[in-house]
């Protein structure tokens, strides 16, 4: 094959490649526009969630609303419940617990909502002053269960 024929063949192949590239680019942009349209539809559908509640679900919601409106002190945790829970936590622990450890257990295990400041400044000092609750301050910021010592028993030596 001569150089001229070979050049013409190469030019022809290059021309076909360019045409294929144009066709692929056109197909690419067509697919991209379809994808954009689908994404727009999906976003529009997700913005407007269709919530279909059964009559039973609606009734449950109404009862919950009524209960919450009626019971305004639902967020209130009684001192008695909190103190007994803390005594239980301290009794189970072999070592004194810090205020932070106590609050973590109250929140995570017993699902009581109390702030650390309220526990530290109000609840634990009040519990310590009451004779009926067997807790004592081990040292600053740490509390322990108070073992009662009977008159005939010897304390730890």
The N- to C-terminal Cα distance equals 112 Å
Strand arrangement in the largest pleated sheet:
1-3-2
- What structural class do helix, strand and pairing data support? mainly alpha
How large, in whole angstroms, is the Cα Rg? 37 Å
**Apparent shape:** elongated
Give the strand tally: 3
**Main β-sheet, in a few words?**
3 strands, antiparallel
DSSP helical segment count: 5
Chart the SSEs and their pairings.
Layout: H1 3-47, H2 55-70, H3 79-92, E1 97-98, H4 99-108, H5 116-129, E2 135-139, E3 142-145
Antiparallel strand pairs: 1-3, 2-3
Please describe what this structure looks like.
The chain has 157 residues and is mainly alpha-helical. The chain has helices spanning 3-47, 55-70, 79-92, 99-108, 116-129, and strands spanning 97-98, 135-139, 142-145. The chain has a three-stranded antiparallel sheet with strand order 1-3-2. The radius of gyration is 37 Å and the shape is elongated. It starts with a helix and ends in a 12-residue tail after the last strand. 8% of the residues are buried. The mean pLDDT is 84.
Please give a quick description of this structure.
With 157 residues, the chain is mainly alpha-helical. The protein has 5 helices and 3 strands.
């Amino acid at each position: 094959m001569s150089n001229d024929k070979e050049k013409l063949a190469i030019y022809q192949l290059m021309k076909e490649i360019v045409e294929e590239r144009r066709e692929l680019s056109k197909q690419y942009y067509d697919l991209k526009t379809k994808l954009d349209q689908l994404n727009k539809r999906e976003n529009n559908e997700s913005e407007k969630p269709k919530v279909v509640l059964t009559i039973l679900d609606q009734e449950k919601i109404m009862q919950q609303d009524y209960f919450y409106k009626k019971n305004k002190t639902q967020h209130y945790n009684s001192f008695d419940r909190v103190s007994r829970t803390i005594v239980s936590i301290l009794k189970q622990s072999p070592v004194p617990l810090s205020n932070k450890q106590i609050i973590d257990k109250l929140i995570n295990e017993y699902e009581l909502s109390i702030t650390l400041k309220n526990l530290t400044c109000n609840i634990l000092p009040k519990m310590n002053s009451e004779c009926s609750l067997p807790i004592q301050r081990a040292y600053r910021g740490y509390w322990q269960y108070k073992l009662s010592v009977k008159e005939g028993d010897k304390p730890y030596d």
